[in-house]
Every structure is written in structure tokens, then in C-alpha cells.
Amino acid sequence: MRIPRPRGIRTRIVVAAALVAVGVGSVVVTRSIADHPAPVTEDVTLTLPADPTDTDQVKIDARLYLPQQTPAPAVLLAHGFGGSKDSVAAQARALADDGFVVLAYSARGFGLSTGQISLNDPDREVADARGLVDWLAARGDVQQDGPGDPRIGVAGGSYGGALSLMLGGLDPRIDAIAAAITWNDLGHALFPNFGTTEPMAPSTPAAAGYGGPGVLKRGWAGIFFGAGAAPLDAGTNGGEPRQVPGPCGRFAIEFCREYAAAAVSGRPSPELLALLRAHSPAAVAAGITAPTLLIQGEQDTLFGLDQSDATARQIAAAGTPVQVRWFPGGHDAGGEGTRFSESATARFLSARLRGSGEVDEEFVFSLPGTPTDQGRPSYRRMTAADYPGLVPGAPPAPAIELPLAGPASQSILRPPGASPAALSAVPGLGAALSSLNAAGGPAVELAADPPGQSASFATAPLDRPLTITGGTSVRLTITTAAAPGEGVLFAKLYDVSPDGGRTLPGGGVSAIRLPEGAAAGPLPISVTLPALAYQVPEGHHIEVVVTTTDQAYANPLSPAQYTVALDPDAALRVPSVPATTSSRSLPVAPLIGIAGILGGAALLVTIGAIRRRRRVAAEVEPSLVDTPLVITDLRKTYDNGFRAVDGVSFTLRRGQVLGLLGPNGAGKTTTLRMLMGLITPSEGEIRVFGHKVTPGAPVLSRLGSFVEGSGLLPHLSGIDNLRLYWEATGRPSAEARMDEALEIADLGDAIERKVRSYSQGMRQRLAIAQAMLGLPDLMVLDEPTNGLDPPQIRAMREVLINYARTGRTVLVSSHLLAEVEQTCTDVVVMNHGRVISSGTVEELTSTEGATELRVDDPVRAATVLESVDGLGPVRLMEGEHPRLRVDLGRTDPAALVNTLVGAGIGVRGLSKTTRLEDVFLRLVDVSDHREHDREDS
After folding, report:
1. What stretches pass through the bilayer (predicted)?
2. Which residue in 49, 273, 285 sits closest to 162, CA to CA?
């Protein structure tokens, strides 16, 4: 099928990204500092541990902020991953203004602090923090609870939030903890598995089970570990970048080694999971005795609401007071909502460390509200009496059960290479764009589920608005044909409007790895969907979708088939905590005038469009504008190191029908997918009519294709499929050449029937007709004759030959070599990702053809011929009449006969074959031997 050029999506994404970027950069701090002189600051460098015999000593770079009146309670302030003491400077000044002694510092491996990153190792980063508490305990300007025991709270976000919790679990001197957007178990967060074989009975709103070693959250993990592997820039090292040799960068070797293996396989080793858990709050939460505030972002596909839920349950089980806040921010939302988090932290620390203000026990969350008159997103601040289910004996979080409907059993596929993959969110941006939709901003929806890869189940339209407060769950039965350990699925929840518009709230997706025994038969699975704070409007319905791929995760590359079914009487369990709208306004920082932002965004879009036009013009090679296809030194290497295409080059000219041949795994389909702009080459380039091919390139509108399935919609008729496809191109209906397409399909009255009733051959003919709509200048067909009977194959051959005679061009990949020989003018043969031969069909069959010999003693003749110089491989063709097949090369046939006769072997016949099949088999055989020799060397 021809790939319709996307209309407007890039523009919408640019606008949304501009709004996010400009908005984050335009926060106005409204705190007045006129009433208080600026706090006194002092930069200090501390050597930890103090024991000089310790081989793991580091220098910790810190900054002390002193309030106007001392002694005062202290706050140890930690930063997020990739940051430093400078990252939290504004929050530190604000806390000092509130009367706290604040020590902000750079964790080991960050900023000017030395050492390697060990991800909050209790014996390293957490021990460093304990040393800083010792240092504060020795100061006269810090309020003391006893000898060596300061009055102190610890706060931080993300990386710093986990460190705060771990310090609180290991140091009883800590009096208050405020942790934001952080993890409970880093192994669960980076390798999630939200499918369990046991029924779920959650007591808290966002509880989620863990079904064992999960699926690598590749997008986020790459950002996370990439930031630690990169050298520090000049701004964090006194003007000179810190170069760190080796692939591990600033990471400790044990993390580097284990993560590298997991990044390749997509699966964590038991050692890695144990290591990550030991460096997580989950390992020490039972020892936390200090009152704790947990703040988690509602727009966070890195550390979801389930992570704070687990930490809250663990702390509360030890009898420690814990408060939970959800806010409209997180790792996907940039700086949006940061002030809400910092304000809640300041109020909590004041109440717990100084006794000023009330101790707030309410559960607070936010729902998208009605946009302002200026179109600015707004949120409703909701409050409930407490976070349900934490207190022993308290009733669990209330939930509503909604019946689900859909086909009882749905079959879905994971394509080879797991591509194309479903798109749910872009790490750091996806959920923010979804929130713009929910708040009435520009319509930007990234979510996409490729056909054939998803099963869906839906509720009835809602008769009233439904507030989702936490993780919904459903019971499914999965049957898989995947290899053991390769059973991976993804579940997500859509809000679907009456007109069919779909929104993926938060951009979240739940990864599921089936246990290795799942291949034995149907397996009941309890699936927890991403936890949300979201309201589904009246008249909308909820759709649960299960897909086989997702671009944000490490997908198994092997093809697999699954059957997904609802359990009998299955219902969607939706947690919905009763709450009221708070009278307190949500403290979201005001932005610079929205008109200025929109104007700036419009300017960005205009500049971007101009640059794109200039770039497109610059990427046209004038000498090739009449050449349908030029592929130059094309390579594709996947993340696991496998090189599918290795230096492919060939040219396709007008009027040619070129056959792309090769055994399975030769790289043909990968080459075609790069040609279609479906995947990006690692090296080299593709030019279609002189234009460089990139995903969504306008020149692709001149190309029709049938590659890896038709994408036909089974619930529509054949004619409706053709019409709908053509409408998606945006071109006038008169240009479709529908009559020619219908003649090609030759389906008769069946063209009016639904495609689900078609045979494979009928689907194939309809798909090829779809690819030919509009009579594109270049046609690309992958195995077009699959499912066709001999008369239909002959008709297809005539169609392609006649199509090329009009001056158009055809590229066809096929395993039917006899058909290629009769249809194609030219041939390119591939093997092991490389071109091993090319030319016209006549050239290949005349120069590469084999010679057959019928002799009295084939076995002895083969031995004799193996000693003749210049001959190619000699093969004994067994059967009713054994014979020899040999490549003569430059050897004279008469000399060959004389050699055999001289050896006493009778020659009964000699004939030279010119079949393309024989040429192909010889070329592949020679190539395989060369590849084997290359591997041996």
C-alpha cells in the first residue's frame, strides 16, 4: 500500500513541544524576597568517609544555606539524576527563607563530587548522606535533639527522593522525609511486569502486583543510564568537562556490566534485580520511623503512581505516619507542577520539624479541569480524608466494576523484528502531550496501534462521569505460541469519545511478560493498567487494548501469535476514591502571557516549515529526478548488533521490472521497509526520483507498495477498503483510477463483501489493487503472488509487465523464481545482507548458468572433475536418472568431455541450463561458503 503523507501531525507536535518548552522556561517565581534578606551561603567540600584508611573515600561538593535566625532545624536536600547542588538551588533558598538550615549537595559522581555512581548504594551514596548528617550534627547553628542528633529532615526528587527514603530507613536520626517522583523498587520500575497469575485484591488505589522479571523500559532506561555514562559538561566542573574513559562512564562496574547484558536481551538477570532492589527504598522502608510525605506525578511513565503506593504501604505497615500527594507533573511533564511539589514539601517540613502549621493527613490529587478563557490548561485540586487502605483494618480503596464486551477470543501477532511497533508515549514528552489534549489544548495524540497487533475490549458508554483514581485491573486469559520467556504483551486504557476520538490518559502502558510455562496452554492473568488520576466524561466509554509491541520497551524480535480472551463475567475494576474539590487553589506557577507563547510557537512552526522546505530542496539530487530508485551503500544494524543489511547498492530505472531475490534472512524485506520509510537506515541512503527517503518524506506519495501485509480492514467491504485508503491520501477521487484497480482485483461481486469473508488469494489481489490506486510511478511488491492460483499468477505477471510498459517501474520480491524469470527484466540477488549478483535476467542466466552431464558413473565422474582447474562446484543430482551439475566457468565443454572419456567414463549427454533457479542456487551456495569462511577466519 502507498504510505499516505502525514498531514499536520508534525506541526501539532512542534506546537505542543514549543508550548511545553516555552511554558517550562517561562515560570515566574512569585515568592517575594523583599521581606527577607538573601540567605547566607557557603560552599564546602567534605571528604567522606572521614576515616582516611577507607579506600572508597570521595569528596562531596555541597552548599550550606543559613537562615536569619539560628540555631534552626536542618534540611538535607538531594538532587535528581544528572543534576547537582545547583539543580536544587532555588528550592534550597526558599527553605532557608522559611527558617531552615539547608545543606544542598552533589551526590558522588555528579557535579564536582568525585566517585562513581552506584545508584544509592547503602554503603556509598547513603553512607555519604549519613556523613553529611554527622557534619550538621557538629554545627552550633543547627538545632539538636541530643548529642550527635540534629533536628533534621531530608528531601529530594527522583534520584534524590529515593536517597531520602533510604537515608530515613537507615538513620534513626532523621525526623521527617519528603520524597517526590521516585521509585520504590528500581528493578520493578525499569523492568515492569503488571501481569500476575494470582487474582488481585488491592487495598490501596494504585497497588500493582509484580509478575516476575519483566520487560526493559528501553526508552527511559537508555536516558537514565546514558546520562550517567556521558562525561560531565563544563558547566558542572568549574569550566572544564570531566572526561570519563570506557563505556561505563561514571557508573560503578557492577551496574554497568549487569545493565549492558539486560539492554541487549531486554530481560533482567536475577543478579541485576537483586542489586536494584538492594539500592531501593523497598529494601529499607520497614525501618523508616520518621513521618513521610510521598509526592508522585500523575504524568510519569518512568516512576508511576504504583511506585509511591508500594512505598506508602511498606512504611504504614511499620506503624509510621505517611501522607500521599499526587500532582499534575512528573518526569513526562518537565518543570510543570514543580512548584506544587516544593510548596507541599515546605509545608510538611515546617509542620514536622518546627511544629508550625497543621499536620495535613489528607490525600490530595488533581484532575484535568476546564481550560481558561485563554486556552491555558487548568486542574481541579481534589481532596479525600486519607489515602485509602493504609491503616490496618481500614476498608480498601472503593472501586467500581464495569462489564467489558468484545470478541470472545482475539488472535494477535507480533511481526518479525517487532516492527512496526505500537506507540504509546515518548519518554519525557508523551504524557505531557496527552495532558494538553485532556485540557483542551492543541490536538496531539501520539498513541497508535498497528493493525493485527491488538485485541480490544470496551465498556458501554458511561451514563455519568467516572473518576479513575489509581490502577484499573482486568482478568484475561492468554494463549501464546511464543518461545518460552518471549511471551510479552502490553496493556493500555483509552478514553473513547462518541465520535471515536481516542485519548491515552497519561501515555502509560503496562508491560506483561508471561511466565515461561505459559506456552503450555491458556493462562489466566490479572492485569493492572497504568494508575491514573483522570475523569472519563459522560457518554464516553473505556477501551482496554492489549498489543504485542510497544516502542518504549525492549520487544522480543521473534514473531509470535497470541490469543487474548476475557475471563467469563470479566469486568474492569476501576478504583474511584470519593473526593471533593478543594477550596485551596492549585499553586501552579503563572506563565508569561499565553499570547506570547502562542506567538512564539507559531514562529517556531513557521521557521521549522521554512527550514524543512529548504532541507527537502537541498536533499534533491537534480541528476536523479528521472531515476525511480537509487540505493547507495545501505546498512541496517539493530540494537543487538545484528546487521540485517550490509552495504547494499543498486539502481532501478524507468520501465524496469526488477526482481529482488534471496533466501530467508537475506535482508530483502528490511531493505524494502527502509525504502518505504518504515525504518531508518544505520548508514547509506535511498533516493526516489532524486529525493532522499526519510520517514514521511513527500516523495513517498509517488510510491505504491504491498509489503508485510495489506492492512486491510476486515469489517469493511473490498470496495470500501479501496475508497477509504484513497481518501486517506488526501488526493482527489478522480485520480484514484478505481476502475483499473477493480479490473486488477478481478473479484466480481465479492468486491461488495466484507474482507473478513475473503480467501487469502482474494485478500492478496485486493491488496495489490490497493497498491496500484492512482497508478504510482514506482511500485514495490513483496511476495505479490502468495495465495494466488496458477491462472491468477499468470494474470498478475501480465499486469506487472504491462504496468512497466507505460514507463512506470516495478520492484518485486518473490520466492517463485520461475515467475520472476518470466516477469522481470532485471534481478538483484541478496544473501547475508549483501548484494551477491545483479544484472539483467539474460545476463545472469547466460553467464552464471550450470551445465548438466549424464554419464555412466556419476560418482566416479564427480571425483574426476573435482581435480579439473577452473571448474565451479560439482554437485551430484540424485534421482531416477542421476546426473552431475557443474559450473564450467571458462572451461571448454569439449575439453571436459575429453577428460571424462579419457578416464574411462562414458558421456551420454551434455546440456547447459539457463534457468534462473539454478543460477540463484549456485550464487547462494557460493555466498554461503564465503560467509562460512569469513566467520571461521
Report:
1. 588-610
2. 285
Please tell me the distance from the alpha carbon of residue 450 to that of residue 423, in angstroms, as a whole number. Answer: 9
- In-domain check, residue 778: yes
Q: Mark whether 822 and 850 lie in a shared domain.
A: no
Q: Are residues 91 and 169 in the same domain?
A: yes
- What φ, ψ does residue 757 adopt, rounded to 5°? -90, 0
| CATH code of the domain containing 858 | 3.30.70.100
Same domain, 567 and 479: yes
Nearest 10 degrees: CA dihedral of 101, 158, 229, 103?
Answer: 0
Domain match, 446 and 534 both: yes
Residues 461 and 492 in one domain: yes
- With CA atoms as reference, report the closest residue to 172 among 203, 206, 138, 133: 133
Contact 163, 125 (CB under 8 A): yes
d(CA 518, CA 484): 7
The Cα diameter of the chain in Å comes to 115
> 369: which residues sit within 8 A by CB, 6+ positions away?
378, 379, 380, 439
In a domain, 29, yes or no: no
| Same domain for 417 and 533 | yes
For every residue of 168-193, DSSP letters joined together read HHH-TT--EEEEES--S-HHHHHS--
Residue 586 has pLDDT above 60, yes or no: no
Asked whether residue 904 is assigned to any structural domain, the reply reads yes
Residue 705 and residue 740 in contact, taking contact as beta carbons nearer than 8 Å:
no
Distance CA 13, CA 424 (A): 14
DSSP notation for 495-518: EE-TT--EE-GGG--EEEE--GGG
Pick the last residue of a domain from 825, 841, 857.
Answer: 841
CA 436 to CA 457: how far, in whole Å? 26
Helix axes 338-349 and 89-97, enclosed angle (nearest 10): 40
- CATH no. for residue 204? 3.40.50.1820
Beta bridge partners of 527: 195, 474
State the Cα–Cα distance between residues 480 and 462, nearest whole angstrom: 33
| CA dist., res. 181 & res. 364, Å (int) | 15
Strands of 752-889 (E only): list them: 778-782, 809-813, 826-831, 834-840, 851-855, 874-877, 883-886
Cell of 658: 526488477
What's the total number of domains in the chain? 6
Q: Residue 607: which domain range?
A: 592-618
Non-local (6+) Cβ contacts of 717 within 8 A are 751, 752, 753, 754, 755
Q: Which one, of 537, 457, 447, 448, lies nearest residue 498 by Cα?
A: 537
Does residue 765 sit in the same domain as residue 809?
yes
Regarding whether 881 and 757 lie in a shared domain, the answer is no
Which of 352, 384, 416 is the last residue in one of the domains? 384
Q: Does 430 score more than 70 pLDDT?
A: no
CB 800 within 8 A of CB 811: no
User: Is the CB of residue 91 less than 8 Å from the CB of residue 63?
Assistant: no
CA separation for the pair 635, 500 (Å, rounded): 40
Nearest-angstrom CA–CA distance, 2 and 66: 66
* Residue 221 scores a pLDDT above 90: no
Phi and psi, residue 232, nearest 5°: -70, 145
Q: Which helix (H) or strand (E) holds 575?
A: strand 571-575
The percent of residues above 90 in pLDDT, for the chain, comes to 41
Bridge partners, 580 (sequence order): 383
Residue-wise pLDDT for 872-927, tens only, equals 778 887 776 778 878 766 677 777 788 888 888 888 877 765 577 777 887 887 77
> Which among 310, 56, 281, 49 is positioned nearest to 174, based on CA atoms?
281
The verdict on residue 496 lying in a domain is: yes
pLDDT of residue 477: 92
Query: What are 548-568's pLDDT values in tens digits?
Result: 999 999 999 999 999 999 987
Separation in Å, CA 540 to CA 208, 471, 493, 502: 26, 19, 13, 10
